[in-house]
Amino acid sequence: MTDSTAPQQRLRVLAAMSGGVDSAVAAARAVEAGHDVTGVHLALSANPQSFRTGARGCCTIEDSRDARRAADVIGIPFYCWDMAERFRADVVDDFVEEYRAGRTPNPCLRCNEKIKFAALLDKALALGFDAVCTGHYATVVTTAEGRRELHRASDAAKDQSYVLGVLDDRQLAHALFPLGDTTTTKDEIRAEAERRGLAVARKPDSHDICFIADGDTQGFLAKHLGTAEGDILDEDGRTVGTHQGAYGFTVGQRKGLRIGHPAPDGKPRYVLDISPVDNTVTVGPKEALDVVALTAIRPRWCGEPPTGPDSYTAQLRAHGEETPVTAEVVDGELRVEFAEPVRGVAPGQAVVLYQGTRVVGSATISTTRRRERVTG
């Protein structure tokens, strides 16, 4: 396999510049590789001041200014594109509706799918660009047969292939990730940025959800969904507490349950289930979280879809560990069986399949099957 970021020809590249150090260095490396690069910052809010500030977001006014300054230093044209309406509909509204339905979404994954590699890529191609470049840590390689594949980054600690598992063949064909094919650490990326004279060299990484200004996810959801008192139940259906909105909980959560009645065995209780239909939250022991299988919908494949049951590894969250699974597609749904039970799996999360370092595809978890508990 060969590194697809090493150009066989000079490409017209649109570099998505968030205002952070990663995307700035990625744009600089694309220029250094011989590409014709133009920088673009995406304005994702009609009121940018409502997004995270203090160099912790990726969509604020200060981020736009940082991106422009980086483009000036690199010596490339720079534009700011307004995608606030598309972002609100495809990411923010989707986030709220998923929680309304009792699911736990990943907005960064949705942003990559709907904004950076759909809306942005479509506009780039329409304007005559050949590829979109981002600062993600992942690798695109080309096989001897000319097929492009998405693989994990060389630096496992920074790998972001999980949130890119939604990319299909067409999107992958026009994606460049200049940071993912090197073994450089984040400290080395920052040092490179300093050598290049980029002021964002020491800018903190973005964390949390960019469109929740104060980081209070529950408060954000309460504002959009309102408060609705409901019951917290144990596994036998007994009321052990109350809540102000089922959306404020996630499967596997332990802290902040505010349960007035201790468990009979005195052990901590965890959120096992969230039911938006009757506005209840069910809690129970840690062992009851063990999931042995799941079904996932809306699969997206980074290449050919699986043709039958096969062995893979699966990743269930952005910074989670891989776990061995057997998976197959049945009637358009992905069915996954775990070799060993896993915990903290919630509907709405993405399951991403791997074969070695190659990303096979991604799907949204719809249902889970837990291990039967032995009682008595």
TrEMBL record:
Entry annotation: catalytic residues: 111, 210
Keywords, in A-Z order: ATP-binding, Cytoplasm, Disulfide bond, Nucleotide-binding, RNA-binding, Transferase, tRNA processing, tRNA-binding
UniProt domain tRNA-specific 2-thiouridylase MnmA-like C-terminal: residue ranges: 294-365
Domain tRNA-specific 2-thiouridylase MnmA-like central positions: 219-284
Gene Ontology CC terms, in alphabetical order: cytoplasm
Function statement: Catalyzes the 2-thiolation of uridine at the wobble position (U34) of tRNA, leading to the formation of s(2)U34.
Gene Ontology terms describing biological process: tRNA wobble position uridine thiolation
Chief location of this protein within or outside the cell: cytoplasm
Domain of life of the source: Bacteria
Record keyword Chloroplast present: no
Substrates-to-products reaction catalysed: S-sulfanyl-L-cysteinyl-[protein] + uridine(34) in tRNA + AH2 + ATP = 2-thiouridine(34) in tRNA + L-cysteinyl-[protein] + A + AMP + diphosphate + H(+)
Marked site: Interaction with tRNA: 136, 349
Region (Interaction with tRNA): 158-160
Protein name: tRNA-specific 2-thiouridylase MnmA
EC number: 2.8.1.13
Protein family membership: Belongs to the MnmA/TRMU family.
UniProt enzyme class: transferase
Native source organism of the sequence: Streptomyces alkaliterrae
Subcellular location: Cytoplasm
TM ranges: none
Record-listed ATP binding positions: 16-23, 42, 135
InterPro entries reported for this sequence: MnmA-like, MnmA-like_C, MnmA-like_central, MnmA-like_central_sf, Rossmann-like_a/b/a_fold
HAMAP family from the UniProt entry: tRNA_thiouridyl_MnmA
SUPFAM superfamilies registered for this protein in UniProt: Adenine nucleotide alpha hydrolases-like (SSF52402)
GO MF terms held by the record: ATP binding; tRNA binding; tRNA-uridine 2-sulfurtransferase activity
